[in-house]
């Protein structure tokens, strides 16, 4: 199992490991254009740390997180947990 380090990005705590992409400028650009309505269904494909899906959840969306990388999936699950999201 990968060990995690915790970083803060855009006001969210995120779990990172050596096999998960760390949010950067491109993530910030995407966060600035995400527009979702309450209960809208969203898929965070290639979720990595889960930051985009977590942001969509905070806007009221219903989100499914998907990543082919099992280490990234663990990062997403950890990020959800440390942000008190079930």
Structure notes:
Helices cover 35% and strands 23% of the residues. It has 86 residues and is of the alpha+beta class. It has a two-stranded antiparallel sheet with strand order 1-2. Strand 3, helix 2 (51-58) and strand 4 (62-66) form a beta-alpha-beta unit. The longest helix is centred in the last third of the chain and has 13 residues, at 70-82. The two termini are 21 Å apart.
Task: Outline the secondary-structure elements.
Elements: E1 5-9, E2 12-16, H1 25-33, E3 41-45, H2 51-58, E4 62-66, H3 70-82
Parallel strand pairs: 3-4
Antiparallel strand pairs: 1-2
In summary, what is this structure?
This protein is an alpha+beta fold. The protein has 3 helices and 4 strands, in the order ββαβαβα.
Structural class: alpha+beta
Assembly state: single chain
Strand content: 15-25%
The pLDDT mean sits at 95
Cα Rg:
12 Å
Strand order of the largest sheet: 1-2
Span between N and C termini?
21 Å
The proportion of residues forming helix, as a percent range, comes to: 25-40%
